[in-house]
Specification:
Blueprint (H helix, E strand, L loop, with lengths): L2 H10 L14 H12 L10 E5 L3 H8 L6 H6 L2 E8 L1 H4 L4 H10 L4 H18 L6 H25 L3 E5 L4 H10 L8 E10 L14 H7 L12 H4 L4
Antiparallel strand pairs: 1-2, 2-4, 3-4
The protein binds flavin mononucleotide.
Flavin mononucleotide binds next to strand 3.
Length: 239
């Protein structure tokens, strides 16, 4: 792996609002992005997320009505993925979902399940302090989805595929729409974040080249090349 290629992909990536609607991602490439999602790390390995890939045009139109932050992406993207996360009932140590992860995915024998469940319980209660608060418990699961999201977007960029992350939807109405379409059970899962994939039109203005120097100065001091980000000095503390 080459550092400069990864950096080039990360710099090329930008949140594309309008995709070229005529270009579709081939199955091999899309499956690569999904595989990257699948193998992403999650806390305790419980993988509290799922993906709904929305290719149905009618459903996309219904979602647009409750997702003002994703109108142009839902209209033009090749693929749209909704990352959903588990509800609190599913995340509790004794739930069927947790049993499933231990027994069926991690292949724990029954005796090991008991120990694993106990470690998980202590982690959620004493360490994170989220076990008794459903909102906090669900927020912890949601954080795992953002790791998946980031991995997918970077991997896509590395193979020249554009993406657009989106949280701009009314979550209750959004979930109701997905439930009516039969793809989400809101008692066990909730939408967390959406991401569209596709290709930018060749004439897409990049965030790195604002049209006029004057405009740059007037609106904000944007000098391109991702320098609108905080500096590493601000983000990273080394002890
Ligand atoms: C978690 C998350 C949610 C976002 N939600 C939306 C959204 O709903 N609609 C939208 O147009 N852009 C959305 N964005 C895109 C951001 O506005 C964009 O990433 C940011 O302005 C930085 O620009 P860049 O990604 O092109 O570098 C979201 C980004 C992230 C990371």
């Amino acid at each position: 792996m080459n550092k400069s290629d990864i950096l080039k992909a990360a710099k090329w990536r930008q949140a594309i609002k309008q995709f070229d609607p005529t270009r579709k991602i081939n199955d091999d490439d899309f499956n690569f992005i999904l595989e990257i999602a699948r193998i992403s790390p999650t806390s305790n390995g419980i993988e509290p997320w799922n993906a709904i890939v929305v290719q149905n045009a009618d459903l996309r139109q219904k979602l647009i009505k409750v997702a003002p932050g994703g109108t142009s992406q839902l209209n033009t993207a090749s693929h749209v993925v909704i990352l959903t996360t588990k509800r609190a009932s599913q995340l509790k140590p004794g739930s069927d979902y947790i049993k499933h992860m231990s027994r069926d995915v991690h292949d724990h024998p029954a005796v090991q399940f008991a120990a694993w469940k106990q470690v998980y319980r202590v982690f959620l209660s004493s360490m994170l302090g989220v076990l008794k608060n459903d909102d906090l418990l669900e927020a912890h699961a949601q954080r795992q989805a953002y790791i998946v999201l980031g991995n997918m977007m970077l991997a896509a960029a590395e193979i020249g595929i554009d993406s657009s992350p989106m949280e701009g939807f009314y979550s209750k109405k959004f979930d109701k729409t997905l439930a009516e379409a039969g793809v989400l059970d809101p008692t066990t899962d909730r939408s967390t974040v959406m991401v569209a994939f596709g290709y930018r039109p060749s004439d897409t203005a990049t965030t790195k080249t604002r049209p006029s120097e004057k405009l740059k100065k007037l609106v904000f001091d944007y000098d391109g090349d991702h320098k609108t980000r905080r500096s590493l000095d601000e983000i990273v503390k080394t002890v």
